[in-house]
Amino acid sequence: MLHGILLIALFSCAAFYIGDMPFIQKLSLSPLIIGIILGMLYANSLRNQLPETWVPGILFCSKQLLRLGIILYGFRLTFQNIIEVGLPAIIIDAIIVTVTIYGGIYVGKFLKIDRGIALLTSVGSGICGAAAVLGAEATLKSKPYKTAVAVSTVVIFGTISMFLYPALYNHGIIDLTPEQMGIYTGSTLHEVAHVAGAGNSMGKEISDSAIIVKMIRVIMLVPVLLFISYSMSRAIAKIRRRVGIDSHNPNRSSKVAVPWFAFGFLAVIGFNSLNLLPEPFIDFINRLDTFLLTMAMTALGAETSIEKFKKAGLKPFILAAILFLWLLGGGYLLTKYLTPYLM
């Protein structure tokens, strides 16, 4: 197992090194994204030469380290952040997350996309990009290639948004106040890195509020994961009754697989809100967390081959494009016409 873990750690170190290159920094590509790309390059080149005894280490990174990374992600947030942005941001975030996930699921059904890929893509678009996809993957226990496909859609359309939003705002095409633009950016862009990149191009006032609004979306990952787990248990119970299992007790449902790491994530936010730890230590934890999540993404990429991408087809990217247009247009209309009534 140790050999597999060290292999993924080595790739993750390379992802951080590449991420520090000026060209990559301009694109605001996080080490998580670079890690999954490196993992996929490995999966489609030298993967077959890997000793089988190393595989458990890779799986450990994609499962256990993933959950630990999600929990430690809570050190980036405090409940005070929510109070700072106020009611308008919270309500718009809630609408965006709900419509994006439900809409993505129904559009996925219409396009006849694999349900797991459709849900992962919708959660990634609606909440916080790759981190949300990882959280949902840990709950769904889906196959690694489905996670890789969903993350790819987040990378493509999130990067487009990161360059598009500042261009539209700076040229006056988007008619929003700086406060509204911060809400719009934070509530509709995919990754935290995308929000930071776009915000920095539009000024500190917009950037600061956009990142806080984005972090509120991150907190919404907890109820979403709980709902996904509950829905899965209901679906399993329905299937069991359909095939005759537990037919003597139709009211019995399958046990809900509670994603414990979601509660850990929420508990860490609560602890971080107390401001008991010094800032340098928090910064260290955040860097460590980024490394753990990078290892998880790299491990998922290492289990994803081109053949599996071909199996998924073009439809997931069509779904992601539809969600992107909803976030761009629907998010703008919500921000422009709803915030005046909430402020």
Automatic annotation (TrEMBL):
It comes from the Bacteria. It is found in: Cell membrane. InterPro entries: UPF0324_pro (IPR018383), UPF0324_YeiH-like (IPR004630). Its main location: membrane. The chain crosses the membrane at residues 24-43, 85-105, 117-136, 148-168, 211-232, 257-278, 314-334. The keyword Transmembrane applies. Keywords: Cell membrane, Membrane, Transmembrane, Transmembrane helix. The keyword DNA-binding does not apply. Belongs to the UPF0324 family. This is Putative integral membrane protein (TIGR00698 family). It comes from Coprobacter fastidiosus NSB1 = JCM 33896.
